Amino acid sequence: MDRENFTEEDKLRKENKMMKFALGGIAGLLLIILAVLLFFVVYNGVKPAESTPTEPSAPVYEYSDYTVSDEDALAAADLVVGRIGDVELTNAELQAYYCMQIYAFIKESGGYVSYYGVDLSKPLGEQIYNTKTGQTWEELFLEQALYVWKRYTVLCLMAKENGYQLPADLQQEYEAMPEEMQELAKQLGYASVQEMVSTEMGAGCTLDGYMRYLYTDYYCNSYFEKLYDDLMPTLEEMEAYYKEYEATIVNAGASKDVGLAVDVRHILLTPDGGTPIEGTNFSEYTQDAWEACRVKAQKILDEYLASDRSETTFANMAVKYSSCASASKGGMIANARKGSTVQAFNDWIFDENRQYGDYDLIKTEFGYHIMFFVEKEDMWIRYVKTAMISERASTLIDEAMDNAPAEVDLEKIKLSFVHFV
User: Fold this and answer.
1) Is 32 exposed, middle or buried (0-12, 13-18, 19+ CB in 10 A)?
2) For residue range 294-334, what is the model confidence (pLDDT) as tens digits?
3) Which residue has the higher pLDDT, 252 or 27?
4) Segment 150-167 mean pLDDT
5) Among 19, 143, 144, 311, which residue has the fewest nearby CB atoms (within 10 Å)?
């Protein structure tokens, strides 16, 4: 696809497609919120790195290009390129880590990666990221991938040392992945699951390698949930933290006078047609278009009500049906503040009686929204709690990393090109 003709619709379709693939079409959406916090922990605390990790896992500048032909990458898929203790990293698994760093970058940039001076349709090893050091985009993402692998692996080793086992429901979900991924491959038009994996993650990423990567991600995030609870600060500790770092917290927009932060999922359906209203972000629709939209939205709500009515089911339906950019995040609108959304949306989510699991169908200037209420919390508490847990977890992982050095053989790394658009 020509990048100049890569429309918003194409971008959303690609994000939604990758969302379904990366989660295997299963209930893994339950782990997304924890995964976001864990991402910050992996990058040393609550503040994500602006560019590269602060401690690269290996000096990846030693070699000029790690990308090889699809045939060579596949041939080297099972070659061990890294090791921490008795845990090995193969090229197939590294390809998954590497690819997910790029997808994370695409997501964070809102799909407008060309604004950062990179063209994903061309080899990343030929494009300079840092003009001062000569670091390429390939080296950047590889450095990040190795760094994430090391910290995830160390966290998993901590979990095993503490006798942690993946909960039965998550184990069952993981075991059901191959079958569900097979169905997903059919839906996306692939002849097989392996073809889907190879296309979306690169030829060097085998199904076995991807499943090992995914299990690590599941196990790591699940253990972090336990760690999250264990490291939860008391209100007294949060008050003390706020007092010590008040200036920083206020600058971050999380002062005590900000009020509540609300998390809500929604599925947006926009009427067909419409004439843009000059000077606004809205369009004018006919009554017939509005009614057709309402009927369609009610049908989707009825589908949800006929299900188990879980948040995971709603999130999966948002990925499938919503026309909002939040669809790729399961329809999640996080940290909404009073007055930050259009009136009808705002009134519904900030209703003082609103509780977890509440659902509804509401109309705004954008269209019809199928709503699912998740959580409300004082903004300052949310910020401080996240910061303190992140810092505490990061300290634990850093200490564990000091006792678990990683061995990486850069010369054996063989990456494959991924067609992102």
Assistant:
1) middle
2) 999 999 999 999 999 999 999 999 999 999 989 988 999 99
3) 252
4) 92
5) 311
User: Average of pLDDT values for 134-142?
Assistant: 92
**Percentage above 90 pLDDT, the chain:** 61
Q: What is the mean pLDDT of residues 87-115?
A: 88
Amino acid code (one letter) for 317: M
pLDDT at 62: 58
Residue 379 CA to residue 131 CA, distance in Å, equals: 39
Give residue 376's pLDDT band: very low, low, confident or very high (50, 70, 90).
Answer: very high
Those residues whose C-beta lies under 8 Å from the C-beta of residue 366, and which sit 6 or more positions away, are 268, 270, 282, 342
Alpha carbon distances (Å) from 76 to 86, 223, 376, 412: 20, 31, 49, 8
300-315 as b/e: b if 16+ CB within 10 A? bbeebeeeeeebbbbb
pLDDT mean over 373-388: 95
pLDDT mean across residues, the chain: 84
Separation between Cα atoms, residue 295 and residue 254, nearest integer Å: 40
Q: Positive or negative, the Cα torsion across 204, 96, 157, 50?
A: positive
Q: Is it the case that residue 380 has pLDDT exceeding 80?
A: yes
* 170 contacts 218 by C-beta, under 8 angstroms: yes
CA separation for the pair 206, 84 (Å, rounded): 21
Q: Which two tokens stand for residue 122?
A: 């061309």
Tally Cβ neighbours within 10 Å of residue 277.
Answer: 11
pLDDT class of 50 with cuts at 50, 70, 90: very low
